[in-house]
Design goal:
The complex is a heterodimer of chains A (160) and B (383). Chain A is mainly α and 160 residues long. Helices cover 44% and strands 0% of the residues of chain A. Chain A contains five helices and no strands. The longest helix of chain A has 25 residues, at 135-159. Chain A is flat, with a radius of gyration of 27 Å. Chain B is built from twelve helices and 17 strands. In chain B, the strands form four sheets. In chain B, strands 3, 4, 5, 8, 9, 16 and 17 form a seven-stranded mixed β-sheet that branches. Chain B has a six-stranded parallel β-sheet with strand order 12-11-10-13-14-15, sandwiched between helices. Chain B has a two-stranded antiparallel sheet with strand order 1-2. In chain B, helix 4 packs across helix 5 (188-197) and helix 7 packs parallel to helix 9 (280-288). Classes of the chains: A mainly alpha (160), B alpha/beta (383). Chains A and B meet through helix 1, helix 2, helix 3 and helix 4 of A and strand 2, helix 4, helix 6, strand 12 and helix 12 of B.
Chain lengths: 160, 383
């Protein structure tokens, strides 16, 4: 695919946004000096906090607006509450959050069953498209999974 | 209303959810007409972004019709067809006032390291996203922009993220006339960055990836050179050699945390999660750029940390520039480029899928099936 474009100056728009001021030290912002006023800027009205909101401990109060999607709950929620006791600098903030995400996926499956829904893993994972467009890979992966599973079962039976 | 619903890594479905409500006087409710799956949504889909909760709705690229507005909304009105930048920005804090709309300080309670983003985990504010029939849009006086009447809606939806992010990637490169620019990653953002780089006057634009169909697409769309790193022994040596053993003037990382090409990075970043994803592209960018060159980063990495050759940044005197795109700042310029025909965003779209088939759409994009470049989801509520 090596083909250096010799006619680059005829590419529509070539060179029309050249900015001679855009040196590495030139910030892509309109510097106002307001940074020195720190957090004393005009703020929007505060959105009412009527859900459990986990707040970074690197700020004094919630942002003026926030998302209300999926408040913390269950075991994953307890882990998230622990994580938010620590700053964004700490691994004890991020690693518990990743752990909580994995637990949350299992909580989601349990919650589905509680509601009488059997999760359609095949559909949710889009395996129909994988099989349609990449059948060899899909069959190969299935064969490997079955083979490894079979060997594990055989090994466990032998141990018994 | 119908909405995308995350169930855990590699599992999504659509569910019926309650309609969004006005929760703040500057909110609007928007009926979604187009929404995309972004390459960065795949980091969520793959479980790579901390605090991605089961039950969340993704989607930060969307257009829609304003259905309802809060009492303080004056810049848009019911019935307006708007494109909504992926950043949630108040327009009043010091960062917004300086044009850093991707760094708003009043849109994310959960983290200070990133501003609020629609449908991008609780690390980015916990907002529901636009892969739904309706969505709550905070700060509706700031972000939503009325789509010009003569603009194709498919172009408009790509102005919410792909085009501004690609353009800013090139802009942050500080490209000078005659420069050689290397873009790592031939996904939608990388292709757009390569195309937009030409606006700044380089003589060569090179794109590096490992997926042949994407390289072929990039070569035709962005008029650039395209190389598969799997066909070369060492991409850094290749790039040094092709720049007369000097190094590129500007390197742009459009890959982020799920890069391939380096076994150690893959093992530590993707298999064991000992770092925030595989930083292979960033490592190559730092090592391929000339001394005193500029590395521009728009690829998404997780918040904890990554293994990158920081010593080489020091010793080579490299300037590292990075940010989430400031969509609102860039929109006037980019709308002009699109309306004048210099940019053709909708040329990136390869798949149009009903919202109901979202699981298949994610799988197709994630596994790069059917030569997918960019997927647009169409809700059934679209007029």
């Amino acid at each position: 695919m090596n083909n250096q474009n010799q006619d680059f100056k005829n590419i529509p728009g070539w060179g029309m946004d050249i900015d001679p001021d855009n040196e590495p030290t030139y910030p892509i912002k309109n510097y106002t000096g307001d940074d020195h006023n720190r957090s004393n800027y005009e703020k929007a009205e505060q959105q009412p906090v009527n859900i459990e909101l986990l707040k970074s401990n690197e700020r004094p109060r919630p942002s003026a607006v926030f998302g209300t999607s999926v408040p913390p709950s269950g075991l994953s929620g307890a882990i998230r509450r622990y994580a938010f006791k620590h700053s964004e600098d700490r691994y004890r903030h991020w690693i518990p959050l990743i752990l909580a995400d994995r637990i949350n996926a299992w909580e989601g499956i349990i919650d589905d069953f509680k509601k009488g829904t059997i999760p359609n893993i095949v559909k949710e994972r889009g395996w129909k498209s994988e099989f349609r467009y990449n059948p060899v890979n899909m069959i190969g992966k299935a064969a490997i999974t079955l083979a490894v599973g079979g060997l594990m079962i055989k090994y466990l039976c032998k141990r018994k | 209303m119908l909405a995308m619903n995350y169930r855990g890594p590699y599992r999504v479905r659509t569910v019926e959810r309650p309609m969004p409500e006005i929760l703040h006087p500057e909110d609007a409710i928007v009926r979604v007409t187009r929404t995309c799956i972004c390459g960065s949504d795949l980091h969520l889909y793959h479980g790579m972004v901390p605090d991605t909760r089961v039950g969340s709705t993704f989607g930060h690229e969307f257009t829609g019709v304003v259905e309802e507005v809060g009492p303080l909304v004056t810049n848009v009105k019911v019935g307006d067809h708007v494109l909504v930048p992926f950043n949630i920005a108040c327009g009043k804090c010091n960062f917004c006032k300086q044009g850093l709309y991707g760094n708003c300080h009043e849109s994310n309670t959960m983290a200070t390291a990133v501003g609020g983003i629609f449908g991008y985990s609780h690390t980015a504010g916990g907002f529901d996203g636009g892969q739904a029939e309706y969505v709550r849009v905070p700060y509706a006086n700031v972000g939503p922009t009325v789509i010009p009447p003569d603009m194709d809606p498919d172009d408009a939806v790509l102005l919410t993220d792909v085009v501004p992010t690609g353009y800013q990637a090139a802009e942050m490169g500080g490209i000078k006339e005659g420069d050689t620019v290397v873009v790592f990653g031939a996904g939608p953002i990388g292709i757009m960055a390569a195309r937009c780089a030409w606006f700044f006057g380089p003589s060569r634009v090179i794109i590096i990836d490992h997926v042949d169909y994407r390289l072929e697409f990039a070569k035709n769309y962005a008029k650039c050179e395209a190389y598969n790193f799997k066909s070369m022994d060492d991409p850094v040596v290749f790039l040094k050699k092709t720049t007369d053993w000097y190094g590129a003037d500007v390197c742009i990382d459009c890959v982020g945390c799920e890069a391939e090409g380096n076994a150690l990075q893959t093992f530590t970043g993707k298999v064991t999660l000992m770092q925030a994803g595989a930083a292979t592209a960033l490592q190559w960018a730092i090592n391929s750029v000339k001394k005193g060159g500029i590395v521009s980063v728009v690829g998404v990495y997780g918040p904890p940390f990554n293994y990158v050759p920081i010593g080489n940044i020091l010793n080579k005197g490299i300037t590292l520039r990075a940010n989430q795109a400031s969509v609102k700042r860039l929109l006037p310029r980019l709308i002009d480029h699109v309306q004048s025909g210099r940019l053709n965003p909708k040329g990136l779209i390869t798949h149009r899928v009903p919202l109901e088939e979202i699981s298949e759409a994610y799988r197709i994009f994630s596994s790069k099936l059917d030569e997918c470049i960019k997927t647009v989801l169409i809700p059934s509520t679209k007029p």
